Amino acid sequence: MFTPILKRTLSLLTGIFAFLVLLGFSSVFGKETDFLQILYKWEPLQESDGVSRIIANASHTPTSGPFQDGNLLAFVVRKNVLVVVDCATQKVICEKAFPEQCILHGLCEGYVFYYAGEAVDTQVLSLETQKEKVFPGNLVLVAEGGFLVTNDRGVVHVFDVETEECLLSEPVPGGGQPVIAFGKVILVPTQDAQRNFGGYLGFLPQDRKRFPITHLSPGVRFFFPERSGHTWESRNSIPSTFLPILCQERDAVFLEFLDEAGEMVQRFPLPDIVPAPRIVPSPLHFFDAFSGKMLLAIEDETETFHFFIADTREPPISLGQFTPRGKTTLYGAFLDDDTVIIVEEKGPKETVLHAFSPDGRRVTEKTLWPPGLSARRCRVVGGKELLATQGHLLLRYALPPGELTGVFVFPEGYDPSERVLVLRDKGCTFLSNRFERDEGIENPMLVAFDISGPGWPLPIELVEVSPHGESLSEVFEDLPTELRFHTLPELEKLLSVSVKEVSITKEEERLTFTWLTPKLQDSTPKVTTVTASLGPAQRTFAMTVIPFPNPLYLEVQTYPEGEHLVANWTLRNNAPVDIDDLRFNLETKNLQFVSGDPLPERIAKKEVIHGKIFFKYLPSTPECQPLWNGYTFLVSGTLRVTSRRGTAEASFDTPYTVHPEYAFEIQIQQDPERPWSYLFADDILRHLQVFDAAGNNITGNLTLEKRDDYVVRIQGVAPGFPSTSLPLRLIWEQDWRIFEFQARLGSPKTRIVAPLLRGSWDISFAFPGNTIQQVVEPWRFTPPRFTLTLPPNAHPVADFLISEDEMHYFRSVAFDGSASSDPDGVIIKYEWSWPGSAIIEAREFAHFFSVPQIMPVTLKVTDDRWQTTSVTKEVAVDQRRTIGGRRLTIPPAFARQNSATYEVEVLTGDLENAGTDAQVFLALYEPEEREGVRYGSGVMRLFHSGNPFERGRRDIFSVTGRAIENLDHIVLLHDNSGNKPGWFVLGLKVKDTRSGTEWVFLPNRWLALDTGDRKTYGKFTPVTDLYPAGIFAEGERKSLNLVEASDTVFILPEDCTRFYFTCLDGQRDMEVFRQDGRFLGRQSANPAWRKREPPYLPEDEWGVAFEAATLTRPERFLIRTRKGTEVREKTVWVFPANWANYKNEALQAVVLSALEGKTEVFLCGKTVREYLAGLNPDVVNASLPVIDYGVSAFSIFGVSPDDYLTDALSEGLGDYLTNQKSLIQQFGFTLGLASSTVDLLDYLYDALNWSVQLPGVVSGSVAQAYKVILLQELGQNDPTLRQITLLLERSKTLVEEIIGCFESNDPDSCKGKLATLRTLTVGNNPFSPTLSDHAMNYEALGVTDCEPVRPDYPLAILLSLAASNVKNWRENGHSIYRQDALLNILPHDPVTDTNAALDVYEPLLQTIIQTGSILINVCLLSGT
């Protein structure tokens, strides 16, 4: 099943725009939709504009900003275009292009603050006059009233932006003391005579008044507040008329308040609080202010936050202590009724809302849904609601209860976490086409949308139902059914699914829902609704519950074993559930059960059970007629199993041969009144003749000898059975006579010469007893003796045929009784009957029937001595049909006793008006056994509940008819009914489901009255040469009878000797080339085959052949198709049959083979380390090395891989990354890292972005020696980077060896090398959530261990750890600045210096991680 990370990865591969469609967005974003308005859009930069790939990619979003001031929104696009939009009027009020880069730093009081070009002067643009003003120095902050504060080379200036007057210039010390603004006052640090910190002065720019702040003297240890969650431009601007200060005197801590005159107006002790011992960042956090109150938090040395409601009138009200996961995992604010809310991240998956009354009582403590909500992405709007973002979700909660009232889902490819701005009930954000798709967003843009309702339509589709009927909306009754939904990754674990009055179980690991469907009443389908919910947002899916199909399959095979017949049976349960109520029934003919394996009472889902049954031969009712010279009869049986889920049965039959090795004796009694009046044996021998059942004189073939005076022994016959004895006729004759009879009504009388029988007997010669085994040796068998009395007459033999002469074929059913005979005379009368008919007297006649059916037809014959005999045979007949003014009927055939199920596949041609609305009928026929005797299936209608026989459609039917033993031909007919009865049938396949035998037919013709031969029926014979196997171009089908490892990777099966390249589009020419460029062959366009459908093709349309014996190694083929000037190309890989058990390795080898000659990419870690270690600390500007291996996340592989390979790569990576965050957190606890900063996976996600290349050139500068010190340390001594470098170098060798095995067609060696590469890259237990399970041994893999005392971990873990280290260093600074005392001689900020160095190091690490991600993706690839 799919994990959330896999879904995110799949979404990256398929693009963001499919989800935009789900969300209801317009495909043309220049138009408004119901909930999306465009405020501004721009053209992103291209590399052709002379910028690097990094800059081009970054220009899909604002390159600076945005900043918000009321309804105004300011931002910079394309590096140098400043834009200001009035979101209320939806108008652009400023769009200004600069010749150089523009960096935006603020929007306040109708002015825009920014840098243009070098960050030397601060520029201000008046939105009212559209005039620019330039002020010296870097921007520090913008105070209340729009007064600008800058720092020009150590001198702080305060300017009146409107008049451009400099109101204050004050040199400041270099100790890092901040400039603070609160209310109308600005606090500026000053210098003493030695240029050290000399305290603070206050400045009121409105009054041009400055004054000293005596309370903030150098001897006082105090901490200014920092605004939590704000940018550096505003973090020191406190929106309050009083300034809270944390003051520390020895062991006492006080919270003090300064007014705008700089006087301390209130002081409150804070016992039991020891602030964190640092100045930057400050341990005093300012969260919000309202109605004269402030929400403050003090961070102590244990990283615990103490929250207070504070004002100048009364002591602070404590709200308690909070120990979140990190410093950015808290959010606090006032509501409009003075209630305070605090959002706390207590763990990776738990975010809690706390609400307090104005007097500090807790009124709410609730865990927010969904899990994993980030506190820094929360904000209070309107004083009553909380807005939060998570991934692609924008969520609205009612406060203070925390009830979720709105869910808004953003399109895939856009994360609103940092970019959603709120103006009343409107949200604003930026959308961009980062993946350069052809559809969807044409240009990046700023959009607005309504967030007042419960949410937008949920972007969710039901993509998998297991099991299901003909469509996903059909499910089976009374069955656990798995449901899987396709949606954004963030939604998957948050979704809840329900069905009215039925429970649904969610499987978290597989992200599926199990629904126990209801049991139907009277097997009537029932419609119900499945509801998918995300908070208050829902989407429903209509589902139809249908009866459960028969899941049982039973097969029986027999073989002789000594004097027994053994039946091997196999029972298969195709259902996804266990069946525990099995009941077996066994029926046999000519067999007697002896013993067997116990028959099971239950069978598990998908289980296959085998067993044996032993029989001995029991001749009771064999279907054959015993023959004197030996014969074979069938023994048969039917094994049947039933359950509440379904039934299955399997029949079997096998021949048993009786040889002519037996004898019998006769004596003829002359007169029954005289028991001892026997003929002498000599007279018997002189006049006796023996005839078989067919009337053949077989006397000369037998041995007749005298046993005594009255007994004759007849030897050389095969006996029958007690129930079906061998029929023989014995004739003892002397005279002849002539008589006349009338054969048919109205015919002349016929003179017949016939023997006058003095003796004629039908005897039945059979085995004694009831089993064949009682007569083991014929010569030990006591021959039976028959005492015969001269009979007066013998019965006639009745038999009939079905004529196929041209007069009746396809016109009527013609019966012929001429096969009947009379052993001792002639037949003079023929009487025909069947159920519901009158008696017909004739030897031959034709008849029409009213309905298709299996009809028992009886022929009764009378001989010249008025003896009668009857025979009944089942005949398959059709009804009389009038089609096009002609009377037609499907030809009749005799029907065998057993029934059979046939699977029929019919392919209608892809021609205009090729489909039909008529009823279609099919009949199967065996070869003629003899003239007039042919067996068939009977007439079967091809029908299903859909709309079959449409143009170009492939339909499959299951029909039941009588069994046939071998197929000679079929008859196909339609009744010309419906709107468009004409039909072009292209191909047809019939499969006997019992034996699995298939026959393929290629009619390729019209069955229509208005075209072709103007017939709606035809007789077709199966083709002898079938399309064997092939790879297809230009169609949805990819191959036939080959192993598909992916859409473009195929493996030959073992029995494949030749395969073909076939272009399914008959209107295109196709050329095939081998990988060395040799031309393999061409398949020309053929308008007669507009759409080719293997296997329904004649041999001359099979395409380009390739002999499998010539494929000695995996080989790549280029398939090029052409139609006019349009040319398309497709590349496929074909593997020899020895790769059949190495499907996954074949996929991995195909990916890695693209690295042939490019493995130097894995030396990138070595290059980075050598560069960093060689930097000179005295260098002021140091250029970084060019790292352009021409490789990004799989861009070296040319065109994107096929969908199957993409999915396989994504699935492996997605499952693997689900464990990584917890694993690195385990490192954090072990090594002291800040677990709250672990966000490691974005690099690896980007590795699946096929269309975005890695940075081609990474460049920058090192401005201070402190940067170079850290960079040198990382290049020379960082153990993680050193170990990554060694693992990549070893990977280079392994990849080269794998490519060698691939080239030499050695799958076994290739598998071993890939296993080693997998261990090195992701370890032996990549999906374990326990860190110790990922430990390995570097030396066993041929890699030097840089830190023998620490556990060894695979490359993927080390890459994630390196990224985690960077995030930790950015927050806390690198330890080198604390360990080296010389670095503390000059004042500096370790965190600032660390981040300056990491701005150089991190792009290089990203390149290494992207390179390693190639190996991670390949090693986690898993074919299915």
From TrEMBL:
Ranges of residues in domain PLAT: 900-1021
SMART domains, per database record: PKD (SM00089)
Domain of life: Bacteria
Pfam (any one): PKD_4
Residue ranges of coiled coil: none
InterPro entries with a match to the protein in the record: Ig-like_fold, PKD/Chitinase_dom, PKD_dom, PKD_dom_sf, PLAT/LH2_dom, PLAT/LH2_dom_sf, Quinoprotein_ADH-like_sf
Name assigned to this protein: PLAT/LH2 domain-containing protein
